């Protein structure tokens, strides 16, 4: 997907030049601005957080327990790995001119890994969810389910966003400020799952005979317009509470594949590999984010520290396009978006 990255860099450089040149000249046009102003300079900010990826719906397999007798219970359970908090980081650079106009650049990154393994139920079946079933001809498929079966899979998720924007802050009242910004966002999302399924349970007499290496990767990249606003209320000159909202509308592409490969002692020499791919460069999507902060300001307001909470919903770019293949025994719900949310701690210094 290099062309999306090249387009993102070119568009952000063009926006930076468009904003910087008029803003530099604006220092000499006095009296044309209704708010903001102040000292010019560069502000550097760094923010870290414990973030959780939500609504991923990464179903590894579906467990079905059968009790075919009066009073018995047939149960179906989707097996999904537990998602835990993991570290994220955000670096921000803001240059403000004496006019009060600002040029903002930020980079956010998040990575996490989840894993799960287990046997299917005794007397039941384990239906596989990763990889297209292997068509053996004549309406027969392999790699569909185990009896009772076993799975061992790991998912890695990586997401990053680069924002560049023109911004301006207005003092609405002595204790309330409002900031708005308009610019561009480049977003990248990658989710990779790998591991294996086995038709027998772990430790069973046939464990390892009919095994399948499973893999699936989804990569999305998008670039588009982003609009944001933030309000800040000052309890005192040293403490403020703020909340912000932002939305971006983007176009880009998704590149994905899903594969199931026989690797067992018996099936590796008798069954073919199944592979499904999709490349769609006509995708569109959006990101929607909200955040809140409690901030301490130094006496000169050069130094700030804050504690916050944020949530981002990425839709379109995180669509899982490789689900529910022909002969899939237990169809899965579709997934078009994921959410990143968690608590953050950050600080900034103005030079």
Descriptive report:
By secondary structure, this protein is mainly β. It has a single domain, classed as OPCA outer membrane adhesin/invasin (Lipocalin). The protein has one helix at 2-25, and strands spanning 41-54, 61-65, 75-79, 86-96, 102-119, 125-128, 134-137, 140-142, 145-146, 150-173, 176-198, 211-234, 239-262, 274-297, 303-315, 337-350. Strands 1-4-5-10-11-12-13-14-15-16 form a 10-stranded antiparallel β-barrel. A 4-stranded antiparallel β-sheet has the order 3-2-6-9, with no helix packed on it. A two-stranded antiparallel sheet has the order 7-8. The longest helix has 24 residues, at 2-25. It is elongated. Residues 14-36 have low confidence and may be disordered.
In short:
By secondary structure, this protein is mainly β. Helices cover 7% and strands 60% of the residues.
Q: Whole-Å distance between the termini?
A: 37 Å
Q: Unreliable stretches, pLDDT < 50, 5 or more residues?
A: 14-36
Count helical runs: 1
Chain-averaged pLDDT: 89
Number of strands: 16
Percent helix, as a range, is: under 10%
What global shape is seen? elongated
The sequence of SSEs as H and E is HEEEEEEEEEEEEEEEE
Strand content: over 45%
Tell me the domain tally: 1
Report strand order across the widest sheet. 1-4-5-10-11-12-13-14-15-16
Highlighted features:
351 residues; mainly beta; Lipocalin; ten-stranded antiparallel β-barrel; four-stranded antiparallel β-sheet; 16 strands; 7% helix
Write the topology of this structure.
Elements (H helix, E strand, L loop, with lengths): L1 H24 L15 E14 L6 E5 L9 E5 L6 E11 L5 E18 L5 E4 L5 E4 L2 E3 L2 E2 L3 E24 L2 E23 L12 E24 L4 E24 L11 E24 L5 E13 L21 E14 L1
Antiparallel strand pairs: 1-4, 1-16, 2-3, 2-6, 4-5, 5-10, 6-9, 7-8, 10-11, 11-12, 12-13, 13-14, 14-15, 15-16
């Amino acid at each position: 997907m290099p062309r999306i990255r090249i387009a993102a860099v070119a568009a952000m450089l063009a926006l930076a030049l468009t904003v910087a040149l008029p803003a530099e000249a604006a220092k000499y046009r006095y009296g044309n601005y209704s708010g903001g102003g102040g000292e010019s300079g560069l502000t550097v900010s760094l923010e870290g957080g414990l973030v959780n990826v939500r609504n991923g719906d990464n179903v590894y397999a579906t467990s079905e327990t059968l009790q075919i007798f009066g009073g018995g219970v047939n149960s179906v359970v989707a097996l999904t790995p537990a998602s835990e908090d993991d570290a994220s980081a955000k670096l921000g650079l803001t240059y403000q001119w004496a006019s009060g106009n600002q040029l903002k650049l930020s980079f956010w990154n998040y990575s996490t890994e989840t894993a799960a393994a287990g046997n299917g139920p005794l007397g039941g079946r384990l239906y596989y969810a990763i990889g297209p079933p292997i068509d053996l001809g004549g309406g027969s498929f392999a790699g569909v389910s185990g009896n009772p079966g076993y799975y061992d899979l790991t998912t890695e998720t990586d997401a990053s966003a680069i924002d560049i924007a023109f911004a301006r802050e207005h003092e609405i009242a002595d204790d309330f400020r409002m900031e708005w910004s308009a610019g561009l966002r480049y977003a990248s999302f990658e989710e990779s799952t790998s591991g294996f399924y086995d038709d027998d349970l772990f430790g069973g007499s046939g464990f390892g005979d009919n095994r399948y290496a499973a893999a699936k990767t989804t990569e999305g990249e998008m670039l588009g317009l982003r609009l944001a606003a933030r309000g800040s209320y000052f309890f005192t000159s040293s403490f403020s509470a703020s909340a912000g909202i932002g939305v971006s509308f983007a176009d880009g592409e998704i590149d994905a594949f899903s594969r199931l490969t026989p690797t067992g002692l018996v099936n590796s020499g008798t069954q073919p590999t199944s592979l499904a791919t999709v490349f769609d460069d006509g995708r569109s999507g959006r990101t929607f984010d909200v955040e809140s902060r409690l901030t301490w300001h130094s006496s000169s307001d050069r130094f700030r520290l804050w504690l916050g909470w944020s949530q981002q919903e990425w839709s379109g770019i995180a669509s899982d396009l490789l689900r529910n293949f022909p002969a899939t025994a237990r169809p899965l719900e579709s997934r078009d978006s994921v959410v990143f949310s968690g608590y953050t701690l950050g600080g900034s210094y103005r030079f």
